[in-house]
Each structure stands twice: as structure tokens, then as C-alpha cells.
Amino acid sequence: MEVTTRLTWIQEKLLEQLLGKASLTLLYKSSVHQFITLDITKRCSNQGSTMTVIHLKQNIVGVFMLEQFPLLRSEKSSTCVWFSFRQGSSTGMSALVLNTQVEVSVTQLKFFSPGGFSLIVDPRNYELHLSAEVIKELQLDLKGVSPYLECEIFRVDGIKRDPEFIKKMVTVKQYRKKLLSALRAYRPHEDLVPEVRILLVGPVGSGKSSFFNSVKSAFQGHLTRQAIVGSDEDSVTKQYRVYTVKDGEGGKMLPFLLCDSMGLDERKGAGLCIDDIPHILNGYVPDRYQFNPCKPKEVRLSTYCTSPPLKDRIHCVAYVLNINSVNMLSDQMVAKLKKIHRDAVHCGVREVALLTNVNNCDEVLDDNFLNMTESMTSRSQVKNVQDMLNIPIANILMVSNYALERSLDPLKDVLIFAALNQMLRTANDSLEDLFLKETASANDSLKRRSRLRK
Predict the structure, then answer these.
(1) pTM for the model
(2) What is the pLDDT of residue 117?
(3) Rounded distance, CA 211 to CA 399, Å?
(4) For residues 338 and 433, what is the distance between their CA atoms, to the nearest angstrom?
(5) Helices 163-185 and 410-453 meet at what angle, rounded to 10?
């Protein structure tokens, strides 16, 4: 009979992603194989990298070893990833990289690391022994000794045998978690509006709708395709769409809206009518408005007398540009982008640029995950966008949208979350200025009325 893992498909994919799209092959299962030193070393040694996974009632705890599984006591330290996550959860993994000594005794499998870190598996009694340091760092609600349901050991294939790469993949996971927490905690400036509105605008096929799908996927924890995307010469998006984003954990709506516009086209009578932009920025264009490339939306004179409330206006403009073609934009397209820039400045709306189709996420992200514009392969594109639209370097962002993938990639998620985080900061800057402008305008009106009464 085939021996199968206790891991669910989602849990297995989560562990594979932790190490950069690895694959797992089950070697040992405590409920099937006896825990005899000779047997476990025979099954698990000389197999390359391995991962020990312990299933508890509420948690999964484990250790990945980059080096070979030891025959007995490990004389030298091995690069190991210690990790934990809750049963039934596809997010929220805690992990740390430690130089670890591994020992297989007659009755126990032991992992020791400097600083008081220890994890001991006792299969005879089905007990997991954890030091206080491990419980704290892996954010576990467990006692020092806890009963477990199963212990499994896997061979890990398809990873780079490079300690620095392993450290970076774990750091990516932690940084993703940090960014996700920041986005969940975000609130519009002074709670002036219930949600901020981010307008996505750019050439046909640049990735506006794909960016929304990617944001939604990253929050949901699985791939989704709500917005229709395509590669036609003409824009697939014909309507103005205002998209909400739901947090996959808890299901609440997040306090921002992504507004998807028709693609810009350099040809006359095609793509988004450039004269529609001021109407969109000022909040006169409703959700599902059908664009007319040859004619802008008509706004009645009476409508202009009563400006839309602050909550209906755009608070951040995001120029979505394909990084592979941004240096080859036609004069007509550049002119349209500059016209939108002037309209945004006139309306007091801050801007960012989003460069899509980044091929190598690992190259874009530096060791601290703070600098996304200094890659040698992107400097000319960044400089071009800065000169063209007068956008600060900090507001020129890079992403690799989800397109043909079948599973999420933590590197892509980090870029998506980092870009969105900067957009929300930029929107807050707009809100602060727009509110001050409205307050000043209201005060001037009151003063004029007061003078007329006198």
C-alpha cells in the first residue's frame, strides 16, 4: 500500500513555496515506519536536503535541512529553516534560519542551535519538546512538551543548494508578512474618506487589469481573475470599473479602491479619450461608465456647481507602464501621458508609476527589500519615467503581475504589496492637501458672504 503524507495539498504547496518552488517526496512516516535509528537513517540519509514535519492538533512545526540528513550525530552545523503555521491556514507562517546541529539517537531526533534553540522529536511517546526560545520566535501557543499526531520526513528537490538563497527566501516570507500587516492596518488620512481611490491608467496591454487581479490574488491567498485581461491591439477594458478588494483572512473589505480605465492608444479615435481624465479625477464618472474613444463624457453645467464629495474623487494616479517598452513609447503616447500628468497636478492628485512585467523579481529586490529601482537592468527605464512625468524615484515602483502562474509566488507578492503600500501613502498625501484646499476654499466663501451681508 502506498504511504501518503498527512499534509493537505495547500499545506504541501505552502512548504514548497517557503523554499522557492521546491518539491517534496515522503521518505518516513512515524505511524507506518518504526523509529529505529538504523531504519530512519537508511531511509533519509544520502537523499540530499530533507524536511522534518511534525503534525500537532492545532499547528504544524518543522525543520528543513539544506545539508544531508546525518547518520548519527552531526559533527558540523547545517543551514536549517525552523518553521511553524496553524492547521487549516494558508498564510501566517513563521520561520527563521539557524545554524543547527542534528542528532539521531536511539530514541529521539534532536535539533540544537546556539541561543537556547532546541526541538526534540520523541516518536516512541509521540511527544514534541520545544525550548522557550523556539516557542517565542515561532509564535506558538504550546507548552514545552506537547503531544503530536504524526512525524514525517521528506526529501526536498528543486532548490538552490545555497545558504544565502535559502535565507533570502525565508526573509521574503517574513517581509511579505510585515507588508501584509501594514496594509491591513492602513486607514485613510484622518479618516477623511471611507476608502481611497487609486486610478490605474496607461497604454493598452500595459497590465492595469492584471495588476488588480494580482492584488486581489495576493490578499485572497490564491489566484483569481475577476478583471478581464487580454493581449489584443485594442483595449479589452471598455468600461470604467471601480474594484473593491477583500482581505482573504476575515473577509473584510479593505479601505482602498482600484479604478481601472480604458487603455490609452496612440491612434486617433481609439483607446481612452484623454478629455475624460479630468472628469474621472474630479469624481464625475460612475462605476461601469461605458467609454467612448471619440467623445468625452458630457457633464452638465449644473453638475459642476456642486462638486462631488472628496470620497468620490481620485486620490492617487498610478501610471501603469510595461518595463520592456517604456523606452520605446511613441511621441503621441508620451504627449497623452504628460497631459494626464498636468491634469493630475491641476487637481492636486499625487502620482506613482508602476512598471510591470519585471522578469527577475530576485534581481529587483535587494537584501533589505527596500530598494526597487537600482537594478542594472531597470535604471534607464526608471530615469526615463522620472524625466517624462516628473515623478520622484521613491514613487517609481516595479511589479510582476500574475499571468500564467498556477500558484502564488512570495517574491511577486512582496513587490505587489510594496507597490500598493506606496500608493496608499501617496493617496494620504493627496487627501491631506485636498482637505486643506477645500477648507481654505470654504473659509474664503464664508468671508465673502460675510462681507456681502455688511
Answers:
(1) 0.79
(2) 95
(3) 8
(4) 22
(5) 30
Q: Can you tell me the mean pLDDT for 74-101? A: 84
- Average per-residue pLDDT in the chain? 85
Secondary structure tally for the chain: helices H, strands E: 11, 17
Cα–Cα distances in angstroms (integers) from residue 15 to residues 102, 201, 445, in the given order:
21, 37, 62
300-333 residue pLDDT tens: 544 444 678 999 999 999 999 999 999 999 999 9
pLDDT digits (tens, 9 = 90+) for 18-63: 887 789 999 999 888 877 767 788 888 889 999 999 999 999 999 9
In this structure, are residues 334 and 301 in contact, taking their beta carbons and an 8 Å threshold? no
- Does residue 114 sit in helix, strand or coil? coil
Give the three cell numbers for residue 420: 500598493
- pLDDT of residue 370 exceeding 70: no
Cell numbers standing for residue 364: 529587483
Q: Which residues make Cβ contacts (< 8 Å) with residue 359, sequence separation at least 6?
A: 400
CB-CB contact of 111 with 83 (8 Å)? no
Q: Classify residue 33 as exposed, middle or buried by CB count within 10 Å of its CB (0-12, 13-18, 19+).
A: middle
Residue range(s) in the chain whose domain bears CATH number 3.40.50.300: 171-449
Sign of CA dihedral 416, 422, 428, 434: negative
Question: Does residue 190 surpass a pLDDT of 80?
Answer: yes
In terms of Cβ atoms closer than 10 Å to its own Cβ (0-12, 13-18, 19+), residue 47 is: middle
Write down the pLDDT at residue 266.
86
- Around Cβ 292, how many Cβ atoms within 10 Å? 15
Q: Which three cell numbers stand for residue 119?
A: 526541538
182 CB contacts (<8 Å, ≥6 apart)? 421
CATH class of 171-449: alpha beta
- Mention every residue, 6+ apart, whose C-beta is less than 8 A from residue 424: 183, 186, 196, 198, 256, 316
DSSP 8-state secondary structure symbol assigned to residue 73: B
